[in-house]
Amino acid sequence: MHNENKIFGEVRPGPLEFTKPKIPALLPDIENGQRNLLPITAQSEPLRLNLGGWADGGHTSTVSILLDGSVVPGADKDIPAGAEDDERFTLLPQKFFNADGVYSISYHVHNLLGDGGSFAQEFEVDLTPPQLAVASAPLFPQTEITERYLEEHENQVIVTVPDYVEIWAGDTVYYSLSRDAGAPNIIGHKTWSREEIAAPPLTYIIKSEDFIKLGDGEHYALYSITDRAGNVSANSLITTLNVTATPKPRWLPHPVLNEATGAGNNQTINPKFVNGDLTLTIPEEAVIKEGDILMALWGEPGTAGAEQTLPDSDITEFTIPFKWFPAQIGKTITVKYQVINGDKVVAESDDLLLTVEKITQGEFGAISCTEPVLSGLNMKLSEAFTKGGARFAIEDWPFMAAGHRFNVHVNGINNNNEPLTTVLLNNHKVTQPEVDQEYVGKQLEYKELSLYGLNQKFYVETKISYDDGETWIPFGTLNINLVV
Questions:
Q1: Are residues 448 and 398 in contact, defined by beta-carbon separation less than 8 angstroms?
Q2: Domain containing 193 — which CATH number?
Q3: pLDDT exceeds cutoff 90 at 54
Q4: Which residue among 327, 356, 385 closes a domain?
Q5: CA-CA distance, 129 to 225, in Å (whole number)?
Q6: pLDDT per residue over 388-399, tens digit each?
Q7: Average confidence score pLDDT of the chain
Q8: DSSP per-residue letters across 122-154
Q9: Where are the beta strands (DSSP E) in 278-394?
């Protein structure tokens, strides 16, 4: 339907209803956000309204602005005939939209062809900043921010923002982290989505690098909220954090064996003075982190006598069991410790080079002949005959334990002056009953003994192995004259 107007005696159709005015300054709508929102930056000047087209019959048109249905005084504008699109606009003075609210704006056109009005366009003015709750401050899971905490939480801290008034999708939190409580330092921002508002709490994330960049010490955290219109809340209260997030270089100096002597990474220990468990100490300067798992390596893994302690944490020393020590007698071994972090990365300390001194034959005790009884160094073959031969025994040795091994060989010459050897024990593994009885013995049968030359010496040579037969240490030699 249209209006009819009489002009110069003629009846002509008047302008139709126009499309609503367009407001270039309006923000795009977002889901669950305020609609047709005007940013606060638009308050600095009159509001431009872009107008649609109309028939002007070659005449100037007068445009009036209607705000909430009422004509805005003093806001009329003449639009010349045939004006281009970019000339078809008018301005709403700022004083008419400087308060919160939803406004409805339209325009009316008058020219010689008649009058017409546009549809209305709503827009919202929001000049009220978000209101933080009393005593609002960023909420951290804990105020001690350590390197270990960050490692265990994907190198980030999730911070919670308490509720405020009024929460809208499109609000943006600007968060600060600084070393000066009086000088905020904005390190990031985050805009709330519809989904986040629907599933509180609202949170933002501070990355480990943000803490590290500021260095260890007290950090001060706060935030503010800027709504989509651009209104900024007051700053929140400050949360003070104690930060020790800077990664320490992994330095693992060599351990020290308390019972040994020496300096630097070279130590020596005398078996004569070892009568119990040993203590291996981690230096104070070693960089051990919370949650690290530690193990001591006694000897190079894969070598004879090498052992490894059970994994442990929160320790400063290891106990090296007494039973591990003998296997290293007469050797120089590497001793170190391993550190395994939460990511299962293994780091090894520097090596301690530990020299375990040899034991001389005189310090071992010796093998003895228990039957027949010797007369000095002489053994009577006739007495051996009554005993069925000669019995030899080892009744004591250092670090006595099951698993040690013995070799006992008898060497001499026969009646034809030819070399003769009889093996009494070959790689004999000591049993626990033998340890309990403190006796490892073996008989040289008479028929074997009688093969050795009379009035000649024969030798009962003994060796011991503490490392399952890998290395052999001379235990002692018994020199005997065989007589009638």
A1: no
A2: 2.60.40.10
A3: no
A4: 356
A5: 8
A6: 999 999 988 888
A7: 91
A8: EEEE--PPPEEPTT---B-S-SEEEHHHHHHTT
A9: 278-281, 293-298, 307-308, 317-320, 332-340, 346-348, 352-356, 368-371, 378-380, 389-394
Give yes or no: residues 347 and 373 share one domain.
no
Closest by Cα among 465, 294, 449 to 379:
449
Q: Are residues 237 and 263 in the same domain?
A: no
Half-sphere exposure of 467 (CA within 13 A, CB side): 18
Report the domain count for the chain. 4
Report, in angstroms and rounded to the nearest whole number, the Rg of the chain calculated over CA atoms: 49
Parallel, antiparallel, or unpaired: how do β-strands 70-71 and 278-281 relate? unpaired
Range of the domain at 404: 362-483
Residues 279/317, Cβ–Cβ less than 8 Å: yes
Task: Reply yes or no on whether the pLDDT at 115 is more than 70.
Answer: yes
Residue 51 parent element (H or E): none
Q: What is the pLDDT of residue 311?
A: 94
Tell me: do 220 and 316 sit in the same domain. no
How far apart are alpha carbons 100 and 128 in whole angstroms?
7
Mean pLDDT of 198-220: 96
Domain membership of residue 251 (yes or no) is no
DSSP E strand boundaries for 150-286: 156-161, 164-165, 172-178, 186-191, 202-207, 217-226, 239-244, 256-257, 266-269, 278-281
pLDDT digits (tens, 9 = 90+) for 359-381: 876 666 678 999 999 999 999 99
Cα separation, 3 vs 22, in Å, equals 24
The token duo for 358 is 């040899």
Claim to verify: residue 36 and residue 100 sit in the same structural domain: yes
Model's pTM, two decimal places?
0.62
Q: In angstroms, how far is CA 334 from the centroid of its own chain? A: 29
Question: Strand 37-38 relative to strand 121-125: parallel, antiparallel, unpaired?
Answer: parallel
- Give per-residue pLDDT as tens, 140-174: 999 999 988 998 899 999 999 999 999 999 999 99
Which backbone phi and psi does 432 adopt, to 5 degrees? -65, -40
CA 9 vs CA 5, 12, 56, 227, 465: distances in Å: 10, 10, 18, 58, 135
